[in-house]
Amino acid sequence: MYEFDIKSPSKLGKAVRMLRKHEDAQVLGGGQTLIPTLKQRLAAPSVLVSLAKIDKLKGISSDSGTVTVGAGTCHADVAADDTISALSALAGGIGDPAVRNRGTIGGSLANNDPSACYPAAALGLGATIVTSARDIAADDYFQGLFETALDETEIITSVTFPIPDAAAYVKFDQPASRFALVGVFVSRKGSDVRVAVTGASEDGVFRWAGAEEALSANFAPEALDGLTPSGDMIGDIHGSPEYRAHLVGVMAKRAVAAC
């Protein structure tokens, strides 16, 4: 490690002001990605702005057909709330108990790892990412590998998820990390069907339009027979692009069956 300062404000406004004051400052949520990154010297901010003492960012509430999760809420707490069972199950399958009790939903969405689970939930449910400056629809928020619509001094404060009529998340995980080799989130609310895929594409999380169209006509696993996602799939030591494309179809069918 190297020398840096940690600021721990108790108010959101003060945290934002600290980010504006220190040009290379970075936000520290649960630290499950940032701390390993610092250890490997892949990032070297002079100031970390910890959100741990901002109680306003923690907690889960439901109202008028939606569930709002504070950005500082850890995965274990999301897993314990079953208002949206698919979201609860997704959170319970992240990492191990140590990760689930430290990592936060806001940190995951801000980092936007291409194999993370929460981006699939946000996109698959049509969530709204609420920040210190504005509200951002999930369809506009994710912009590629590790890229989001967030400005440099913008902090995620909460995420609002519409409660679906039915939803399920199924992933084929990498056993060492439990990140998704491929993960598919399917939801249905009225006539609106959404299918979000993580872990597969070189462009990060994405909506599978072909599957949505097929399932809108017939919400059944067999509606996806013969369909494969378009675009560039990831190829690495864990699987070829063709393997991942095949897994997307398999996981999607399983998710529909689980709805």
Mean pLDDT: 95
Helical content (DSSP H or I, runs of 4+): 25-40%
Number of domains: 3
Beta fraction:
15-25%
Oligomer: single chain
Task: Please compute the radius of gyration using only Cα atoms.
Answer: 18 Å
CATH class of the largest domain: Alpha Beta
Give the SSE order as H and E letters.
Answer: EHEHEEEHHHHHEEHEEEEEHH
Indicate the overall shape. Answer: globular
Number of helical segments with 4 or more residues: 10
> Strands across the major sheet, in which order?
4-5-8-6-7
Low-pLDDT windows of residues: none
Number of strands: 12
Largest sheet: 5 strands, antiparallel
Helices and strands in order:
Elements: E1 5-7, H1 12-21, E2 26-28, H2 34-39, E3 47-50, E4 60-63, E5 66-70, H3 75-80, H4 85-92, H5 97-100, H6 105-111, H7 118-125, E6 128-131, E7 135-137, H8 138-141, E8 156-162, E9 166-173, E10 180-189, E11 192-198, E12 206-207, H9 209-217, H10 241-258
Parallel strand pairs: 1-3, 2-3
Antiparallel strand pairs: 4-5, 5-8, 6-7, 6-8, 9-10, 10-11, 11-12
